[in-house]
Design goal:
Elements (H helix, E strand, L loop, with lengths): L1 E6 L1 H5 L8 H12 L3 E4 L5 H11 L5 E3 L4 E4 L4 E5 L6 H14 L2 E6 L2 E4 L4 H10 L4 E2 L4 H4 L5 E5 L2 H14 L4 E6 L2 E5 L5 H12 L4 E7 L5 H6 L2 E4 L5 H6 L2 E2 L7 H15 L1
Parallel strand pairs: 1-2, 1-12, 7-8, 12-13, 13-14
Antiparallel strand pairs: 3-4, 4-5, 6-7, 6-9, 9-11, 10-11
Helix pairs in contact: 2-11, 4-7
Length: about 270
């Protein structure tokens, strides 16, 4: 039986400086050397994960955009994607709220990252993710075509209220917090857990023991659906409730701890 570790990035694998610690890197290398499987499951885009794919020498497909895409780093192609179109009511609500409260609003569409206002929230996000974001005069024309996701950045209390209103406008759309100040709009039914199942089917491995590690609500389904779900100590309380195990803080090499405690013994023993 194959042992397959899937890890979130921000707040889980990466340090606060968006680096992979030596402990995590060495543990992943040992896992792979012993024929274990490892990949990333993240809200980030293809461009944002590229340096980490190179550093980790990953050759298995990755889960991107919180489950809306599966990306093959070998062929450098999106091998599966889900898209959706915002209803007019959702568009109108976003236009009004973003202007009134200076929210960051980023639209992801066909590999493009778009915004109509490059405010300080988006500048900080772009710096953190190490990617670029194109400024367009008006997002509305782009929203007439299918998109991958929308990222909203702002104060949590404001995003909580906005989330409730958006759910009433479009109950089918997936709405999830990926960080305390990040609210994401995704295609109906999208989750890292669903993408994990699609990835396993694509790989067509007869028997796989999955270990999933995460820190926020966008990781919840993956944690619940894995054979062994792990929340880092800095995770959202809902993940602590759902997880089989609570690992150390992401700053303290939590991924290395999980690999050494649960993955390597399955490969060595």
């Amino acid at each position: 039986m194959k042992t397959f570790v899937l890890s979130d990035m921000d707040g889980t694998l990466l340090t606060e400086n968006q680096q992979i610690s030596e402990a995590n890197l060495l543990a992943i290398q040992e896992l792979k050397a012993r024929k274990g499987l490892f990949t990333l499951a993240t809200g980030r885009t293809e461009a944002s994960v590229r340096p980490y794919v190179k550093q980790l020498e990953l050759n298995l497909p990755l889960i991107l955009c919180n489950g809306a895409q599966i990306y093959d780093p070998v062929s450098e192609q999106i091998i599966w994607e889900s898209t959706f179109t915002l209803t007019q009511g959702v568009q109108d609500e976003l236009n009004a709220v973003c202007k009134q409260h200076d929210l960051g609003c980023i639209v992801y569409q066909q590999g493009n990252v778009l915004t109509s206002v490059m405010n300080h929230k988006i500048k900080e996000h772009v710096r953190k993710d190490g990617t670029s974001c194109s400024v367009v005069e008006d997002l509305d024309p782009y929203l007439q075509a299918p998109i991958t996701k929308v990222l909203l950045i702002g104060e949590n209390i404001l995003l909580q209220a906005l989330s409730a209103r958006l759910k009433s406008l479009d109950p089918d759309m997936k709405i999830v917090f990926s960080e305390h100040s990040y609210l994401e709009l995704l295609p109906p039914g999208t989750s890292k857990g669903d993408a994990m199942e699609k990835l396993l089917a694509y790989l067509a491995i007869d028997e796989t023991y999955t270990i999933a590690i995460g820190d926020n609500l966008n990781d919840l389904e993956m944690i619940e659906m894995a054979n062994w779900g792990v929340a880092v100590s800095n995770a959202h309380p809902a993940l602590h409730q759902a997880a089989n195990y609570i690992a150390s803080h992401h700053q303290q090499g939590a991924v290395a701890e999980v690999i050494k405690t649960f993955a390597l013994p399955r490969l060595i023993g």
